[in-house]
Amino acid sequence: MWEKIKGFISKYFLVIAIIGGALPISAAIYVYYDHFHKQLGLGYSGSQSDWGTFGDFVGGITNPIYAFFAFVGVSFTLLLQRDQNEMLRQHKKQDEVQGMIQNVSDALHAALFDAKVKLETTSDREAHSVFLYLRAISDVSLRAEIEPDGPDAMVYRDELATVLGKISYDLTFVQEQLELMTSCLRLYASFGGSQEIIDIYKTKYRQAAFMIYQIEYLHLEDVKEFFEVDSIKQSVLRALIKKDGLESA
């Protein structure tokens, strides 16, 4: 309610000031005119003393009113300045947190999507990103979950151990960065940050958070809840069951 009133006054301040300034004088003149001219039937006086008395009357009524208006105006201006300073402070904090979010995002993007060349064996020279490794093993884990006795379930643990041997350090780093990203985005939201920006970052890393959780490498409940990995899992499971005609055990 206060925000609406403040916005209305700020928008129409000049009009309100002119009307507010004219009303007391108009009211005083009308009262004086009504009493002496209409009720007593007196005409307009040519005496300077009468006009001096009239001026004292108008001034005596309007001066306290204008003094009160001035006090209200100064108080309102101070409130506006306080709100503007608070807004500037919030924007400064938003900018600082946005810088942190961008740094974390750059680190996450490099760790997840930059191609890595593995040279452990001569047959392992193809460049893969951590995200591709994750997607491959996560798909297998979901199929093994749907069909515990199926062929995927038989090889899942061996494949998981192999993949984790290649990217376990990267996954630890990504998990830490996801936790930092979660904290930064929540801090950004507390400073009144744009929900659209928050949703962009959540969407960008939601699938990665889900896949790390699916291979039992993400143990941070706040990250899991923030990126809504459970809802993603249900959607992916339904899609796999529909695509392959599998039945959940």
Describe this structure in words.
Helix content is 81%, strand content 2%. α3 packs antiparallel against α5 (151-190). The protein is mainly alpha-helical and 249 residues long. The chain folds into two domains: 1-90, no CATH class; 92-244, no CATH class. It is built from eight helices and two strands; from the N terminus they run αααββααααα.
Which terms summarize this structure?
81% helix, mainly alpha, 249 residues, two-stranded antiparallel ribbon, 8 helices
**Which residue ranges are poorly predicted, with pLDDT under 50 across at least 5 consecutive positions?**
none
Number of domains: 2
Which sequence of SSEs, written as H and E, runs from N to C?
A: HHHEEHHHHH
Mean pLDDT score:
77
What is the rounded distance between the termini? 55 Å
Q: Percentage of helical residues?
A: over 70%
Number-wise, the strands total: 2
Portion of residues in beta strands equals under 5%
Sheet with the most strands, sense and barrel status: 2 strands, antiparallel
Overall body shape? rod-shaped
Widest sheet: strand ordering? 1-2
Short summary:
With 249 residues, this protein is mainly alpha-helical. Helices cover 81% and strands 2% of the residues.
